[in-house]
Write a structure and sequence with these properties.
The complex is a heterodimer. Chain A is of the alpha+beta class. Chain A contains two helices and six strands, in the order βαβαββββ. The chains are: A alpha+beta, B alpha/beta.
Amino acid sequence: MPVDVRLPTVLRQYAGGQSTVKANGATVREVLDDLVLQFPQLNGQVVTEEGTLHKFVNVYVDDDDIRYLDKLETKLSGAETVSILPAVAGG
Amino acid sequence: MLRLNATAHAQMVGHCYDGLPLEACGLLAGPPDSDHALVCYPAANTAASSRVYTLDPLDHLRADRDAEARGLQIMGVFHSHTHTDPYPSPTDVAQAPDPAWHYVIVSFRDQVPMTRSYRIVGGNISEEPVVVVGR
């Protein structure tokens, strides 16, 4: 069952301008992989070449940061919304 | 140019005052593809530092959802400089997440806070006028 994936403004240009898209997968990793299959320009923007979550990207499953769940291996039931947000920091 | 609703401006500066002596931060939202910030979303600085900020990602998520529900989108970030110039630091430039955003700094270098806004694109900084509207 596909989940909704909310995209930050900076990535929407790679998904035809859409703010929310659907992607399939039983885990966050699979959903992100499916996202890249649908929108190849998203490759490397969220998951690094080494297969880890990009340091400056936050991914939420509903209200939970995946870094405090099972990271990219976080399982999904299909009813969740996955939200991708850039890290915002500075000084 | 960044146009900023008077209420949003007041909330932004107020939040920065409230954060002293640490840096404060938050997000600004407006209509898509607009330069008009209508809503200020104060956020927590999880770095809890007087020199750096990390915007609480959960606050970001909630702001993003609320903005979308209002037909708006996040268009910028503000943070305070507790004692330095209202100019982006190398850290600000290096970690600027979105070239389409407005980067607002509220500086407490002087007695009266200064508000400045910048565009940061490909490491290049350009200042833009800030116009507070709706007073």
